[in-house]
Amino acid sequence: MRVQNVTKTFGDFAALHGIDLEIKPGEFVALLGPSGSGKTTLLRIIAGLEFQDGGEVLFDGEDVSSRSVGERQVGFVFQQYALFKHMTVAENVAFGLSVRRKGRPPKADIRARAEELLRLVQLDGLGKRYPGQLSGGQRQRVALARALAIEPRLLLLDEPFGALDAKVRKDLRRWLRGLHETMGLTSIFVTHDQEEALELADRIVVMDHGRIEQVGTPEQVYMEPASPFVSNFVGETNQLPGGIHVRPHDIDLVASGGIPVVVDNVFRRGGSWRVEGRIEGHDRVVEFDVNAASPAPTLGDTVRIQPLRERQFHKRRL
Q1: Which keywords belong to this entry (predicted)?
Q2: What kind and span of H or E run contains 277?
Q3: Residue 313 phi/psi, 5° resolution?
Q4: C-alpha–C-alpha distance, residues 72 and 66, integer Å
Q5: Same domain, 307 and 193
Q6: C-alpha angle with apex 201: 288 to 9, nearest 5 degrees?
Q7: Which residues contact 98 (CB under 8 A, 6 or more apart)?
Q8: 73 by DSSP, 3-state: which?
Q9: CA distances from residue 313 to 203, 220, 266 in whole angstroms, order as listed
Q10: Are residues 224 and 280 in the same domain?
Q11: Based on the structure, what is the number of domains in the chain?
């Protein structure tokens, strides 16, 4: 799948500015960014739920820009499930097949397909229940099974875990990654959760104000941010004097030299002490981690820090 020079405006608001992006077969790609960055608009344009003002959407080299969502053969999973409350779980899963105008399978085949998918998403035996009788995590699995029923060439997910609590979200993320690999899917998902993107995606597309700031693997985006925005949005970062950006875990305490910091707060964070302080002479807050096997720095003390790995940005990446 490829989008070329895609633009979109809503009234006076420019939602997308000349987006170029290629998704390879079998990839799991995250569109990551804050609210208003254009990620959901881009996903809806790929699906055919919105239409771009300019540019092309290509599937296997063929321009599908004028085709409806039904003609594009994509599966779409929404944050709020969008299940039919009056239908059973099995009927919800089978819906996409049962309303096909062309090539609709026999009813027995549709039922068998629904049962097969419910087993795949670990909900076998629940086909006769209604959505209201399921947990949030189970409803999201039903929504995913329904999207897979049509055997989509592309699976699109819009904040698929946003309505779930943290524990269920983490379990479903792990499960979805395994399902993606087992089925050989090509998937794109929208999220504003950096942890979700770093854990799930093969590649991350970081967006801001309708533009792509960076495309790369989770390792590249986290360790080699292409702009100050990426550095600040993906993971935690400090800006030191001289325009240097550095992650909290890439700062070490030193006995002499370095940058003097007055310790304002110390608290445990997993296997480390998280230290917050102010750089002397700059009134700038800095955060860094100290191995919890070492004594915690004392509030009010002045310590000296040295960046282990740093990055400097000379201009904004467009």
Answers
A1: ATP-binding, Nucleotide-binding, Sulfate transport, Translocase, Transport
A2: strand 272-279
A3: -110, 125
A4: 10
A5: no
A6: 95
A7: 91, 104, 107, 110
A8: coil
A9: 22, 16, 29
A10: no
A11: 2
CA distance 286 to 297: 14
Tell me, yes or no, whether 216 and 249 share the same domain.
no
Range of the structural domain that residue 282 is part of: 239-312
Rounded-to-integer distance, Cα 29 and Cα 57, Å: 17
| Cβ-contact 78, 71 below 8 angstroms | no
Q: Do residues 279 and 271 make contact, with C-beta atoms less than 8 angstroms apart?
A: no
Q: Cα(167)–Cα(192) distance, rounded to whole angstroms? A: 18
Three-state SS at 70: helix
CATH number of residue 253's parent domain:
2.40.50.140
Q: Considering 174, 206, 228, which residue would you say is the last residue of a domain?
A: 228
**What would the 3-class secondary structure string for 79-101 be?**
CCCCCCCCCCHHHHHHHHHHCCC
Residue 286: strand pairing partners? 277
Q: Output the pLDDT for position 102.
A: 66
What span, in angstroms and rounded, lies between the C-alpha atoms of 237 and 214? 17
234 is a domain residue: no
Interval 191-227: pLDDT, tens: 999 999 999 999 999 999 999 999 999 999 999 999 9
d(CA 250, CA 247): 5
pLDDT band with cut points at 50, 70 and 90 for residue 105 = confident
Per the domain annotation, does 318 fall within a domain?
Answer: no
